[in-house]
Amino acid sequence: VIGGGIGGMAAALALARRGRRVKLLEKAPEFGEIGYGIQCGPNAYRMLEHLGVMDRIEPTVFYPKALVMADAMSGGEVARIDLGPWFVERYGRPYFVVHRRDLHGALWDACKAHENVSLHVSKGLAAFREADDVVQVTCEDGSEHEGIAMIGCDGLRSVARASIVNDGAPRVAGHVAYRGVVPVDEIRNKDYQDYMVIWCGHNLHLVQYRLRGGTVMNNVAVIESEEFKRGVKDWGGPAELEATFQRAVPEVRDMLRYVSRDRNWVLHDREPVTNWTRGRSTLLGDAAHPTLQYLASGACMAIEDAVVLAAQVGGADVDFNRAFSAYQEERLLRTTRVVLTSRVFGHICHAGNAARLLRNEIASRHTPQTFWEYDWLYRGIPAPAS
Predict the structure, then answer these.
(1) Is 209 a catalytic residue?
(2) Distance, CA of 151 to CA of 16 (rounded, Å)
(3) Which residues of 192-201 are buried (b: 16+ CB within 10 A; e: fewer)?
(4) What kind and span of H or E run contains 130?
(5) 41, 87 in Cβ contact below 8 A?
(6) H-helix or E-strand containing 81?
(7) N- or C-end of the chain: fewer Cβ atoms within 10 A?
(8) CA-CA distance, 147 to 57, in Å (whole number)?
(9) How far from each other are the two terminal CA atoms of the chain, in whole angstroms?
(10) Cβ pair 259, 179 in contact under 8 A
(11) Rounded to two decimals, what is the model's pTM?
């Protein structure tokens, strides 16, 4: 398994629990996650439960009362999805939010504890090739490794993908995110402190929800850069962040105090492809189908991938190309829908002028229990038999 992020750890654990011996190779000098919060629908909860890690994660998660869309230009609430008992009854599992490090840490601990998993750092993929009935991997440090199959979980700029798909650089969306986590007591506007709220405005949005068992508030401010559209070289900087949010109401502008200006994240995805498998090698998670964050489903799709892939690999005697192709076929349409719908939802979130009014009118017609746009996502996939 190439890559020790959430997808790679989930893949290693899922395969190990199926009796496979797994060597996981990570490029960084130590295991860990960079980032902030992750939203996990009942579809992801079910997969993490199947992997046996929900008990490890539970102490650190937060369960929002609802998902709320508010208008950053007027300050009014537009729509909400109630996450109470009816939601759990409908989907069989709850919706939760968690810090990336806490989720990754639970998967890492489970992998470390499993006798079938060996973990190796400072082992970035340089090249790989099939020889006879094995895949031979060469790492950037010159070390060589061999296995009966390879799974590329090496992210957005995947070296494995460059060899298998060869579709060039990822697509720059022109959106940039600024993030910050602060103690929940520092939050001034407490109207939605027990919710997941997204404030939507023209070319901007701001997300807030609690993490670490509710003790801290995760804040993400995103702008759709006009400077990027005009071809400005250093687009999306703090000055453009401030200028874009000048359109928002004062209480939303004030929320920028909670995000750091020291670093930002330029958002990317890729055009969905119909094949990410070659011979005894395949891709998983962002290496296969990177997506924008507007469905909050990138990590969730990687976890689903891991469970499906391990189920397809199954027992000891297996045609890996057939198993990987079956995994790919099972995942292709669902992940493609996530990638393309995330783009559409980005436009909806950032709508201005008449489009903003139309968005608000359509969204306001929903009740907290009617939201067909997300139903297909939360219904998820069935957990395979162990």
Answers:
(1) yes
(2) 14
(3) bbbbbbbbbb
(4) strand 125-131
(5) no
(6) strand 77-82
(7) C
(8) 31
(9) 21
(10) yes
(11) 0.96
Q: What is the amino acid identity at position 45?
A: Y
Residue partners of 302: CB distance under 8 A and separation at least 6: 5, 6, 7, 10, 153, 284, 285, 286
pLDDT at 3: 98
Write down the pLDDT at residue 371: 85
Beta bridge partners of 40: 96
Per-residue pLDDT band for 372 (boundaries 50, 70, 90) equals confident
- 3-class state of residue 101 by DSSP: helix
pLDDT of 34 > 90? The answer is no
Amino acid at 98: V
**pLDDT, tens digit (0-9, with 9 covering 90-100), for 348-365:** 999 999 999 999 999 999
Share of the chain above pLDDT 70, in %: 99
DSSP string, 149-186: -EEE---TT-HHHHHHT---SPEEEEEEEEEEEEEGGG
Average pLDDT rounded to a whole number, residues 19-43: 92
From 209, 294, 327, 378, the catalytic residue? 209
Mind listing the pLDDT tens digit for each residue in 198-208?
A: 999 999 999 99
**From CA 158, how far away is CA 270, in angstroms rounded?**
12
Structure token pair of residue 334: 């669902």
**Amino acid letter at 61?**
V
Task: Determine the Cα–Cα distance for residues 141 and 126; give it in Å rounded to an integer.
Answer: 9
Rounded Cα–Cα distance for residues 281 and 133 (Å) = 12
More confidently predicted of 97 and 318 = 97
DSSP symbol at 213: G
Closest CA to 252 of 73, 79, 37, 80: 73
Rounded CA-CA distance 104/5 in Å is 7
Structure tokens at 15: 């395969």
- How far, in Å, CA of 222 to CA of 206, rounded? 6
SS3 content of the chain, % helix, strand, coil (to 5): 40, 25, 35
> 64 is written with which tokens?
């929002």
Nearest by Cα to 91 from 296, 385, 382, 341: 382
pLDDT tens for 224-265 read 999 999 999 999 999 999 999 999 999 999 999 999 999 999
Task: Report the mean per-residue pLDDT for the chain.
Answer: 96
Alpha helices in 100-249 (DSSP H): 100-113, 159-164, 226-230, 238-245
